[in-house]
Design a protein that fits this description.
Elements: H1 2-30, H2 33-56, H3 68-74, H4 78-88, H5 93-100, H6 104-118, H7 123-132
Helix pairs in contact: 4-6, 4-7, 5-6, 6-7
């Protein structure tokens, strides 16, 4: 009895294999080789994009926490911090003076003090150093 079941199972498996092989042969002739290459390339491209996205995903940064120790060590005043924040926003001396209600000469003095305390020579260096020290976001 088991022999008959195994024999019929093999016959059915061979028939299923033959049908699948015929369907495969039909599909191979139906579509050109370039379509198969394009499908495989699209699959690899999608996989590469997904892997790249997973590998480069970064967690969202937490809220900004000012480095108060560096702030006190440098001896920055509140007004100098306000000037530094506006400096980082890309405002000119005249715009900073208008925003804070100061004279442009006072703003120049604050910026000179910032340069001395941060030990830099340019505005961009001051902003970069302040960001490195976590004084501004």
């Amino acid at each position: 009895m088991i022999r008959i079941i195994v024999l019929w199972a093999l016959v059915l498996a061979a028939g299923a294999f033959a049908l699948e092989w015929l369907q495969y042969q039909y599909l191979v002739r139906l579509f050109s080789e370039q379509i198969y290459i394009a499908i495989i390339a699209a699959g690899f491209a999608a996989g590469g994009i997904w892997v790249g996205w997973k590998l480069t995903a970064r967690p969202a940064p937490g809220p900004f926490a000012r480095n108060d120790a560096a702030l006190t060590a440098l001896g920055l005043t509140g007004q100098e911090m306000k000037v530094l924040v506006l400096l980082a926003a890309g405002q000119s001396n005249k715009e900073i003076a208008q925003t804070l209600g100061l004279s442009p000469n006072t703003v120049k003095t604050h910026i000179a003090n910032l340069f001395a305390k941060l030990e830099v020579a340019r505005r961009s260096q001051a902003v970069n150093k302040a960001r490195e020290l976590a004084l501004i976001p």
